[in-house]
Amino acid sequence: MSAEDVLRRLKREGHKLTAGRKAIIEMFVRNPDERFSAKDVYDGMVAEHPHMSLDTVYRTLSLLEEHQVIEETQPSEGVAKYQLACVQSHHHHLICIACGKVSVLQSCPLSSCEMDLGGFLPVRHRFDVYGYCPACASV
Length: 139
Prior knowledge:
Layout: H1 3-12, H2 19-30, H3 38-45, H4 54-66, E1 70-73, E2 81-84, E3 92-96, E4 102-105, H5 109-112, E5 128-131, H6 134-137
Parallel strand pairs: 3-5
Antiparallel strand pairs: 1-2, 3-4
Helix pairs in contact: 2-4, 3-4
């Protein structure tokens, strides 16, 4: 996914294409495996965009998450982190709480659960497993 693809999609959906939004999108596209907090994004933007507020960053992150451009993960320290959405098929994540490494879990735990949802029709879901990667677990 390129920054231009994302910007075209947002424009088609009626959203403004501000310089700040473009810069935030480019930050995620340039660093597809990195996870950023809202403060990380703000700190990365303030030098080039000194008038950008933290509120603007939060609104942009919300918009990008709503359009499935980025995904949120909640590390153990309670601070939401965002990364470029995976474009792979349906999958979930294993997240190391020590080093932050994110691995893909291809099987879906929901599909293997024998549960009665009482007529509830799931549209989407998330399943992240937090723990220690092999390198951090052996320390």
